[in-house]
Amino acid sequence: xxxxxxxxxxxxxxxxxxxxxxxxxxxxxxxxxxxxxxxxxxxxxxxxxxxxxxxxxxxxxxxxxxxxxxxxxxxxxxxxxxxxxxxxxxxxxxxxxxxxxxxxxxxxxxxxxxxxxxxxxxxxxxxxxxxxxxxxxxxxxxxxxxxxxxxxxxxxxxxxxxxxxxxxxxxxxxxxxxxxxxxxxxxxxxxxxxxxxxxxxxxxxxxxxxxxxxxxxxxxxxxxxxxxxxxxxxxxxxxxxxxxxxxxxxxxxxxxxxxxxxxxxxxxxxxxxxxxxxxxxxxxxxxxxxxxxxxxxxxxxxxxxxxxxxxxxxxxxxxxxxxxxxxxxxxxxxxxxxxxxxxxxxxxxxxxxxxxxxxxxxxxxxxxxxxxxxxxxxxxxxxxxxxxxxxxxxxxxxxxxxxxxxxxxxxxxxx
Length: 415
What we know:
By secondary structure, the protein is of the alpha+beta class. The protein is 26% helix and 19% strand. The strands form 6 sheets. Strands 1, 2, 3, 4, 14, 17, 18 and 19 form an 8-stranded antiparallel β-sheet that branches.
């Protein structure tokens, strides 16, 4: 798969002029997601390649990524919006800024935002036991709170038996919960363990408290107010207008029914990619993984959050604070967001000098090993990367792209 500037059909919206260095945030979490209101810059589309384009071309060729869309938001301004490659290799359809991608677990941040709206309205409490709201749940889950579900610290058994192939214990929600209830609950709040069951329960709570279906609540309270025109719920069975085909760099079993597992891990291919033929999920996993959207949708989402159209700035700041585990250490997740130092992403490959990332706090969410949104509050910088390749490592792409707009993110002490 060969990529070159002349055949990438790049669509770019960019601001003119150089970018000034911006001040660090005084408080790393209080301003995590409450940046100055975004001002969407609309300029004539250009095809001039820049350092970001060059980096993306190289990474797409190396990783065999068919299609990629990205946006960079700096101090409230959209300084880059671009689409590269193919939404469908088979049909030779190029990506555009309106190409929709399966957002997978990015969906969880929308579920978290919906829950926080209910919290702001005083209709539920973060520290309320889920069994107090959903009285049909087993009594042994009474120590699990809404906060635990949001932060992946619930200790609940998972409705997924295979998170690579997205295999569930049952296609029916009530049956699935009854089955996992037969398994022991791990100690609550002790460790961060990624968990789908908690987000299934959060979806049920939204429905119980609002009297609306989960999808209708999210559509009317979040997607529509944010102006996310292309956002739709649905797995691979659903017809989603403008959605890119999904591909994978993971090998498949001999019978072609699922992704190949070896010693408990998927087998990564380096010489080719395959069309992903089995991205199907039961409808009750909608709060965890079933939203689709475009890069313009995600920019609209981040804009609406920054303009406080959906949640208070104090609420957004709280969502980015890692859950404090029982041993006093920070967990991996806050109330939906991943909060982690940038140096956990290793070293930059985008800048000429390279070097390790500095210890700046990042606030992120992503999904399907294909999509990622990374905010770096200290630099007032947000990078969104959407791809249609499972295994594209979008978190590393986002981190690298961030250094092209803020070189100081790379630690000089590493040289």
